[in-house]
TrEMBL record:
PANTHER family, per the entry: FUCOSE ISOMERASE, L-FUCOSE ISOMERASE C-TERMINAL DOMAIN-CONTAINING PROTEIN
InterPro entries on file: Fuc_isomerase_C, Fucose_isomerase_N/cen_sf
Molecular function as annotated in GO: L-fucose isomerase activity
Designated name of the protein: Fucose isomerase
Taxonomic source organism: Candidatus Avitreponema avistercoris
GO CC, any one term: cytoplasm
Superkingdom per UniProt: Bacteria
This protein's UniProt keywords: Carbohydrate metabolism, Isomerase
Gene Ontology biological-process annotations: fucose metabolic process
Positions of the L-fucose isomerase C-terminal domain: 349-475
Record-annotated membrane-spanning stretches: none
């Protein structure tokens, strides 16, 4: 994936000038070695920070080494002002952690008091209104802090990506999907750019790519990915390949000062008739390359997908939180086999934007609903182009970052799984199971006015997502609360 950043970590040790500086330096070396042992390459910054001059030198050294994220390591108590100014001067995400004491028989010259120093560090970060990542328990041995650094990497990757992200949209946001019309002001607050374009701009660019010599190569890639069973409309591939090249060229030509691009496109009702196909399969291919394309001009859906891509380093998808599981299907396929109630399960669906690698088996088909609407249910022509199939089972994280009507950011995160149960339906679809989903649906998704789209990361990504959202200043981060833990608006007598 070349649309997400590569994190290059630097480790800066700090030392209170009334403590032994060698203690902090020795512990820094041990931390660097522990990171290396865990397969994590870090740059050991040799300047140890005792004062503001050291701070300038250390940050300059890190930036000269190409570091775009930092771990500030309190090897001893640490100088609270210089160490927090690192986060002010450095142009990237910073994590703070502190060294645990090592030996019971070395608590005179070998005692660092970083446990105490971390308190003053946090206090100073707050005074200066700086942003920093502080782990849940930020004090540990070299091996324990190396694990914290491993957790920091996906967070840093997302934050770096967002700082240089542009969201490109095509078409007005649709009237019947008001949730997609959320205010865009918070995008600028978190450093994201947006470029809004007309569907006509996209159509003109698409037509200009007719006869592009690269089309045949893309067609061959598509055919190889789909296989004989999945390539049900081979005559459609040249059109979709032309569109894929159009989007990729637009991204390259319009990223401007930004490094990374995602899309939020109007995909119906005018699109299929004018372009001659549904864009879903192309959208899925770009998502598999780390360039999410959100349906229905869902700007915050595209933003959420990109965050999930950065956090996991893997393809994600965007789905409707779509329909309940029928009682007879629950009884025959789920009850007694999986530890979920009927209210814990639902179907996540979209027309066909989920990457091929996330489906049990996929095929290019036609959009049934659009075929009814636009082609009167006749033999499909321009409503072809969806990528359909049941989503592969496994752990997932359903989440979304969203702007409310008052231009404040809100988020939710819910971990669960896709069950290995046939959906018996159409589209890119799966049966999702999230503990206490019924209550989460009512008291988060409905009560907090979230839209029908949710981003899906494949794996358990909640820990990193929560840290990213906190770093961005999101105060309301909801989750699927366990039974007995009431939501604010939940009726205790229900």
């Amino acid at each position: 994936m070349n649309n997400i950043p590569e994190v290059k970590l630097g480790v800066i040790a700090v030392s209170r000038d009334c403590f032994v500086i060698s203690l902090s330096e020795r512990r820094r070396k041990a931390l660097t070695e522990a990171c290396t042992a865990k397969g994590l390459a870090v740059c050991e910054i040799k300047t140890t920070v005792e004062n503001e001059t050291d701070m300038i030198r250390a940050v300059d050294e890190a930036e000269a080494a190409g570091c775009n994220a930092l771990v500030v390591f309190l090897g001893n108590f640490g100088p609270e002002t210089p160490e927090t100014l690192i986060a002010s001067r450095f142009r990237g995400p910073v994590m703070y952690a502190a060294a645990a004491e090592e030996h019971g028989d070395d608590l005179i010259n070998g005692r660092g008091d970083a446990y105490c120093g971390m308190l003053n560090c946090s206090y100073n970060i707050g005074l200066r209104r700086l942003k920093a990542v502080i782990p849940e328990y930020p004090v540990g041995t070299a091996e324990e802090i190396a694990d914290m650094v491993l957790d920091f990497v996906p967070v840093a990757r997302a934050l770096i990506g967002l700082s240089s992200l542009k969201i490109i949209t095509f078409g007005p946001r649709p009237q019947d999907f008001f949730a997609c019309n959320a205010p865009i002001k918070p995008l600028y607050d978190i450093g994201v750019e947006i470029q809004e374009n007309s569907e006509l701009d996209l159509l003109v660019a698409y037509r200009a790519h007719a006869g592009d010599p690269r089309i045949d190569g893309v067609v061959q890639e598509m055919a190889a990915e789909l296989g004989a069973a999945g390539n049900q409309y081979p005559d459609l591939l040249p059109r979709m390949a032309q569109f894929e090249l159009t989007l990729l060229d637009w991204a390259e030509q319009n990223k401007g000062a930004r490094d990374y691009v995602v899309f939020a496109d109007k995909c119906w009702p005018a699109f299929p008739k004018e372009f001659g196909f549904e864009p879903c399969y192309v959208n899925s291919r770009l998502a598999s390359r780390g360039i999410p394309v959100a349906c229905e001009v869902d700007i915050y859906g595209a933003l959420s997908e990109y965050i999930g891509t950065c956090v996991t380093g893997e393809p994600v998808t965007l789905l409707d939180i779509n329909n309940s599981v029928p009682a007879d299907m629950y009884e025959s396929d789920i009850k007694g086999k999986y530890n979920y109630t009927i209210r814990d399960v639902f179907m996540g669906f979209h027309c066909g934007n989920t990457p091929f690698c996330r489906l049990k088996s996929g095929a290019v088909k036609f959009q049934l609903i659009q075929n009814r609407l636009l082609e009167d249910g006749q033999t499909p022509d321009f409503t072809r182009g969806t990528l359909e199939g049941d989503i592969a089972p496994g752990n997932i994280t359903f989440f979304r970052l969203q702007s409310a009507a008052d231009a404040t950011l809100h988020a939710y995160i819910a971990q669960g799984e896709v069950l290995p149960v046939a959906t018996r339906s159409f589209g890119g679809i799966g049966i999702f199971a999230i503990p206490e989903m019924g209550r989460f649906y009512r008291h988060v998704l409905i009560s907090k006015r979230y839209p029908h789209h949710g981003a899906v990361a494949f794996g358990s990504a909640g820990k990193a997502l929560y840290t990213v959202f906190r770093y961005l200043g999101v105060e309301d981060i909801a989750f699927n609360q366990p039974a007995g833990m009431l939501y604010k608006d939940e009726n205790p007598f229900a």
